[in-house]
Design brief:
WH_DNA-bd_sf; transcription; mainly alpha; 121 residues; Helix-turn-helix domain-containing protein
């Protein structure tokens, strides 16, 4: 039983970390590989400072790692499969009842599973 408690707590912490729309979008943006803060900010139409604030806890929990190249920091997912896991979670959403059109969830699925980077808005 203690193992289940420990694992449940760890999973709850991971889910809390992911429980922000910007962080989910960032993870999906990084699924194509390494990017710097400016590129992530441009793709998500968010300020760079906000991106940096969200990257800090993702890095602290080892979901992303960074490397420096001069003054630039490049970030990548430590376990890229987490992006696929998030896409699979779309199955559990009851978005159709909260959105005017049911096409929204399908559009997000297309964006997040595309082979080439596209805007994730």
């Amino acid at each position: 039983m203690p193992s289940r408690i420990v694992v449940s707590r760890e999973l709850a912490e991971l889910l809390k970390l992911l429980a922000h729309p910007d962080r989910l979008r960032m993870i999906e943006e990084l699924r194509h590989g390494e990017k710097d803060v400016t590129s992530i900010a441009a793709a998500l139409d968010l300020p760079s400072t906000r991106i940096s604030q969200h990257l800090a806890p993702l890095r602290a929990h080892r979901l992303v790692e960074d490397r420096r190249e001069g003054r630039n920091h490049f970030y990548r997912l430590t376990q890229p499969a987490i992006a696929a896991w998030i896409v699979e979670a779309l199955e559990f959403l009851d978005v159709r009842s909260r959105l005017d059109e049911s096409a929204h969830i399908e559009r997000v699925r297309e964006l997040w599973t595309a082979d080439t980077p596209a805007s994730s808005r």
